[in-house]
Amino acid sequence: xxxxxxxxxxxxxxxxxxxxxxxxxxxxxxxxxxxxxxxxxxxxxxxxxxxxxxxxxxxxxxxxxxxxxxxxxxxxxxxxxxxxxxxxxxxxxxxxxxxxxxxxxxxxxxxxxxxxxxxxxxxxxxxxxxxxxxxxxxxxxxxxxxxxxxxxxxxxxxxxxxxxxxxxxxxxxxxxxxxxxxxxxxxxxxxxxxxxxxxxxxxxxxxxxxxxxxxxxxxxxxxxxxxxxxxxxxxxxxxxxxxxxxxxxxxxxxxxxxxxxxxxxxxxxxxxxxxxxxxxxxxxxxxxxxxxxxxxxxxxxxxxxxxxxxxxxxxxxxxxxxxxxxxxxxxxxxxxxxxxxx
Length: 342
Known about the structure:
- By secondary structure, this protein is of the alpha/beta class.
- It is built from 15 helices and 11 strands.
- The protein has 2 domains: about 5-125, 3-Layer(aba) Sandwich (Oxidized Rhodanese, domain 1), CATH 3.40.250; about 130-340, Rossmann fold (3-Layer(aba) Sandwich).
- The protein has helices at about 15-20, 35-45, 50-75, 90-105, 115-125, 145-155, 160-165, 185-195, 220-225, 235-245, 250-255, 255-260, 265-280, 285-310, 325-340; strands at about 10, 30, 80-85, 110, 135, 155-160, 205, 210, 215, 230-235, 315-320.
């Protein structure tokens, strides 16, 4: 795993559906059997015998590898060194590695395959991260995600769990144009980011809960985050409403989607209040609705949880934003970067 960055390519020889669920960071999918072919060969194996399945499968494998050679690898130089893997490091990656090695490339087959990789990731994420964290705290709409994005843009170390999870972290946080990744893919993305960090420098991270949408944050990471020093980001409520109106513009265009999400709060507020919020959304009174949601739902929930879950929040450094302009966030990011490096 420590040498992953040294290969010229990382090739996932598994089927497209396996690859979509999760894969090694940076891997490209070059299946030796696609999903339909895997089913066909597996059915032959079970219903006829292994010999017939292997005959049919070998022809498919040879054709698919030949296609990849013709389309993807024909121009590769003699010293091109790919890493190839499949589920267990067996027949699928073995067939591809054998052909590429016979051509003359110094190919490496990942011992144990994707399964060994997953074991490595699981063990790594069970350990406390080496780098120190600076936790950006603040009420909903205070600009935590924007600040992380700007910090990342100026070269600070950032672990943006919401970006990796494709979710904004609240009951209204799903992104309509982007489904969440699988739990395994989320963990792979976290592992990849953590291994890139310099442990001598701090990592900025948002004060997340244990779940980001449907995805669970690894326990060791969560414990480290909750014990770390905090920065309390402050933004006026009118500016928070403005920011949320920008970030959640899709709800303005499609209030029925917002109302479906608001129904998740029925058990907390009852049909009368949720119905009134539905009416506000349908009437286009979005700014008024956002302000009321902050006042009645998000801010009380934040107040109840922040001191209980983040042990150093009481000693948090306050950082005030007077605007939601790019210049305001850039100034705040530069201040934080200068503070932690001095």
